[in-house]
Specification:
This protein is of the alpha/beta class and about 120 residues long. Helix content is about 20%, strand content about 30%. The protein is globular and about 45 Å long.
Length: about 120
C-alpha cells in the first residue's frame, strides 16, 4: 500500500514503471480517501509492471485488500471504491467475516471457447 493524502495525489501520481518492475512483489496499490461530495469513499490505482501489467484498469484483488483497510479507518460498511484508471471503475465492497464481497458493473472484453 501507498497511502496518499488526497484523491488528486492518487489521480495525478506519476509512475516509474522501470523502477516498479524491480519490486519483488505482485504490485503496488496507491490509495487515498475520496474528496468530499464524491459518490465513492476511497480512490485507488494498481500498478503491476513486474507481472506484465503497468496499470491494471480494475483490480478485484486490490479491492479485497482495500475494503478492510478503509472500513476500519472510516468505521463503516459497505463502501464504494473508485479505481482511477483509464476506465474509471466503481467497485462496491463489503467485508463479511473473513471474506470481501465485491460488486459493480462489468464489460465483456473477450469471448471464446476452451476445448479440453
Amino acid at each position: 500500500f501507498v497511502i496518499l493524502a488526497r484523491e488528486s495525489d492518487v489521480r495525478n501520481s506519476k509512475t516509474d514503471f522501470r523502477r516498479l518492475r524491480k519490486i519483488n512483489d505482485r504490485g503496488v496499490i496507491v490509495t487515498a480517501i475520496a474528496d468530499e461530495g464524491r459518490p465513492y469513499d476511497f480512490v485507488s490505482r494498481f500498478f503491476a509492471p513486474a507481472s506484465g501489467v503497468d496499470e491494471d484498469p480494475v483490480t478485484g484483488s486490490a479491492h479485497c485488500c482495500l475494503a478492510p483497510f478503509w472500513e476500519k479507518r472510516l468505521g463503516r460498511s459497505p463502501l464504494v471504491g473508485f479505481q482511477a484508471s483509464c476506465r474509471g471503475v466503481l467497485v462496491h465492497v463489503r467485508c463479511d467475516r473473513d471474506r470481501v464481497i465485491l460488486s459493480g458493473t462489468a464489460k465483456t472484453i473477450v469471448t471464446g471457447t476452451i476445448h479440453a
